[in-house]
Predict the structure.
Amino acid sequence: MPLTELGELEAFLALSEELHFARAAERLGLSRPRVSQLIQSLERRVGGRLFERTSRRVALTPAGRFLLDRVKPSFEGVRRAIEETRAYARELRIGFLGPFLGAVDAAVTAFRATHHGWPVSMTETRWGDYYGPLRRAEVDLLVSIWPVREPDLTTGPVIAEYPRVLAVAADHPLARRESVDIDELPAYTMVQLPRTTPSEVREGFLPETTPDGRPIARGGEVKTQHEMLSRVATSREVCPTSTALTEAYRHPGVRFLPLTGLPPARAVVSWRTAGESTGIREFVASLPSLP
């Protein structure tokens, strides 16, 4: 089949749905005369009229309906194949909070094992611009802290969870302890995340009160994991975090103690609902899912 026939069929399908030459032309990004030429060429090719044309209306002829029933499913399949190939050819960009690097590495390795040659890149994101890279379409997916309660985002599976720990300075009074409970934290000052961080993250990961409602004092604001470690190491402020951070970051002046009384930190995948693509669906389908 000559390549030009694809254009003829696309014009035929658009006109069969719009039943209006001007609207079909606008939909295709062509001029009205060009759409008419494509339809006439296809009619010569099949040997009969496909549309009845009057000054008031456009309607499919019986031959036109016959062709539509046979062409539309196949053409939609071609269109899907082209879109899926376009998605395959485009790099899949994954953003992640630094402590979740290990979970992201494992997920990407599993994806590449079944999707050979699909390009993937990874970009670390910051607390202070939590969903910014995702909403600006700088990344396609984001691995961040569960839960995600954003109306424009779709949440995928939880891919990892980590016990909670408390970061304290090596010379802090708590550093000699074997563990700390969340109910003890009102006696200390906790670093705080930027106010631009989603409230569900701030309240869940660095709670403002103990389970029985006692407030926990807030200290300085930190925008990155490195800022947090530096502040903890050089002050009496503490920071609840998780073993995800201890796997990815080290600081000689910080000790990590098991922290009881809080649920594990969970790493979850999310993406812009309006930006969902074949690449995103393929990647999410390859992920493990925790209960």
The chain has a mean pLDDT of 90. Residues 164-263 form a domain with the D-Maltodextrin-Binding Protein; domain 2 fold (CATH 3.40.190.10). Residues 6 and 75 are 9 Å apart (CA to CA).
